[in-house]
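Tutorial, part two.
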Amino acid sequence: MNVVASRRFSITDDPLGLGVGRLFTMAERRNAKRGHLFVSTVLGKHLPVDPREALAFGARLARHWFDGATGSAGATGSAGSMHRASTGAGPAPLVLGFAETATALGHAVADELDRVWPGVTYVHSTRLVDDERPLAFGFEEEHSHATSHRVIADSSWFDHDRLVLLVDDELTTGRTALNTIRAMHAAFARKRYGLATYLDWRGPDDRAAFAAVEAELGVSIDVAALQSGTVDVDRADEADRPRAIDDLPQRDRPSLGLGRPISVVRHEFPDAPRLHARHGWSAVDSSELTAFADQVAESLGSSLGSGPVSCLGTEEFMYAPLRIAAAMADRLAGGFGVNYHSTSRSPIVARDEPGYAVRNAISFDEPAEPGRESFAYNLDPSACDDLVVFFDGSRSVEATASFVEAVDACGTTERLHLVFLGCSR
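Running the prediction step on this input gives:
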């Protein structure tokens, strides 16, 4: 059974003229709740991308949402139009990104908005447990492999007068966004919410559900997407999916290898600034990260070979590695290329078939949570001589042993760089 082959979609609104295939391709989840997966071509999650392009698309989404929400001229927007429209627009918003896929996207949106609407702050949900900090609120993502989200930033971040802008890479039904709004509203009621996404596949019933929540809570929800359309899921295939999942191997360990020996290099940067927005993020944090990304890029550059470089973030820890990878790409622009994507806790079916989004996979124990399986997809042995992997917080070499073993087994690279950035705060 090929679930992806039964997927039918059409683009009904494409305000930036991007065309089919520019923002996504398709794969199949290893998940009985929802079989299809839209794999972003610009996010830097499951597919390698130029890190500067991932940041640029986040900025485009920020401008597109802002133009629609404030009525400024032009769908594509500009820094000038955003600046004019922000005059008198009220307090700058709190941006909320969704773990784990949209943690970096939400961050990129927040950074772009803050350039012209000073005072934007950012926080992302997490699936990690943090017993040292109070839970602000939680919500569920029913279709996910890991359903529970937590928001653990201090309650002072959720000023009731501020618009909250939710950022996700795609909406299928929008149910997770509504769950978030309900949960937040119960603890921190306000009048206005926004939602910015690359893809919006909501059908008439889903849009009616948004209108019903607006009426029930007495709020407005401003939604903007770079592309909107319809998707038709073959319900018979979906009904058969639990059986099909049981028939699939539980670990994908493809033979990618070139048989070359791997050299493991450890880099430590203990004096890192705040590196994630799990507990909140401000313009001060952004300024510190910019300087730190340049510092790390310069330091790593001296240890790289003369060939292409692939960079990997790790699960929710996507944005700081993305910024470092972009700084590396700028420094190496005159020579070889740098690409970026991230490991993932999402179990996806890998198939080495033309046109399929996830061609290979490795699985390993997640260093931050030993015993839990994590994955890296689309590691191409012909695409890099150096694989640079970024870890948030202090991790021992022993904790990364499963990952190193998986990379070594598939011969993906000549040199594996393990980069440890400060301590988690």
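The chain is about 30% helix and 25% strand. In part three we will examine how such features are distributed along the chain.
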